Amino acid sequence: MRVNAEPPGLEVDAILADPAIRIVVCCGSGGVGKTTTAAALALRAAEQHGRRTVVLTIDPARRLAQALGLTELDNTPRQVKGLQPDSAELQAMMLDMKRTFDEVVLAHTDPKKAEEIFANPFYQAMSSTFSGTQEYMAMEKLGQLRARDEWDLIVVDTPPSRSALDFLDAPARLSRFLDGKMLRLLLAPARAGGRSVFNLVSASFGLFSRTVTKILGAQLLTDLSGFVGALDSMFGGFRERAEQTYRVLQAPETAFLVVAAPEPDAVREAVYFAGRLAADRMPLAGLVLNRVVPVAAPRLSAGDARAAMARLEELGTHASTADVLRVHAELADQHDRQAEVSGRFFQEHPSVPVARVPAQPADVHDLDGLRSIGVTFAVTSSAG
In this structure, what are the phi and psi dihedrals at residue 92, rounded to the nearest 5 degrees? Predict the structure, then answer.
């Protein structure tokens, strides 16, 4: 299923060089080269366009650190060395959601209250393992980086699969949580002078209290009540900062890049991402299509190549040429299959620009490999 016209070419270099663009967010499903793309973008912005750049990965994989020549990444930006020229500035970091949560608590409460929060078992679990905490803390960290205003460009590498966009939902989820009946119920003891949550709830909701206690357990409910009460003064700030960062993501200073490979599952996810960004009024800059099989002679079809190969084999001459034609036919077939799969995205989003990155001969594991990918970003044509 092919589209009739090629989509416009994505001018990646123009995005990276534009001083009005302060944030680039890479999103896409797992295994499509998203982390490598984010690193290549950040490196090119620093080296070729002289922008002070930081790349933040939310994916716990170590590929980004290895490719940038760092032994490890953590919650603190680390300087990448070996850049060309030496004056180029690039830093890299990986989100540590618990440490980020701890930093938020320390920044917005007094030391005694922070100590109380840190000791709460519910906080310890929530800050380390609860679903959704990572995405919200990613929003917090991005907001922190932007507020520091130390970099010309922030490149964000999001988690794989559809959770890559979960951080967009963080403000709304947080607002629903803060405004929910259960939360107000749990906050009531703290606001009522510290009366026991069980006594307070039992007074009006005896059956409900017994049911909740049975399901959650008395200790967990006590821990939860204490956690909510301790954080009561911080909730407004949580919501306000998350919503402010959300507005930044909607602003013209942000560019979203959907990263995909020409494979059915990855393209299907890319279609979803693009639609979701449009629905949320997020600025989608384009699609980066990775691992595209290049064809040296695009005008020579696979069928014509095989016909010529068969003729040479029949004549018993030019065996080397026949081998070249065979390889070309196989690559042309693969290229056509990729084009058909990719066409499903362009049918859904015909106006979204695309940059095609050729398949690399080997895994990218260092700065030179990232530079090779970066060179392909200088090509604005979408022909493929």
Answer: -135, 150
Give the model confidence (pLDDT) of 68-123 as tens digits.
Answer: 888 778 889 999 999 999 999 999 998 888 888 888 888 878 888 888 888 887 77
CA dist., res. 333 & res. 341, Å (int): 13
- How far is Cα 80 from Cα 239, in angstroms, rounded to an integer? 34
Predicted pLDDT at 201? 43
Residues 6+ apart with CB under 8 A from 366: 66, 67, 69
Q: What is the largest CA-CA distance in the chain?
A: 97
Backbone angles phi, psi at 381, to 5 degrees: -70, 140
Is the Cα dihedral 333, 377, 258, 365 positive or negative? Answer: positive
CA angle 318, 320, 324 (to 5 degrees): 120
- CA proximity to 87, closest of 47, 124, 127: 47
SS3 at position 8: coil
Alpha carbons 345 and 234: distance in angstroms, whole number = 43
- pLDDT at residue 95 in the model: 86
Paired strand residues for 257? 26, 286
Number of separate helices (H) and strands (E) present in the chain: 16, 8
**What is the C-alpha to C-alpha distance for residues 208 and 214, in angstroms, rounded to an integer?**
10
- Rounded to 5 degrees, what are φ and ψ at 69? 75, 25
Cβ neighbours for 79, distance < 8 A, ≥ 6 positions apart? 89, 90, 91
Q: Residue 201 is encoded by which pair of tokens?
A: 């709830």
Tokens at 232, concatenated: 């009561």
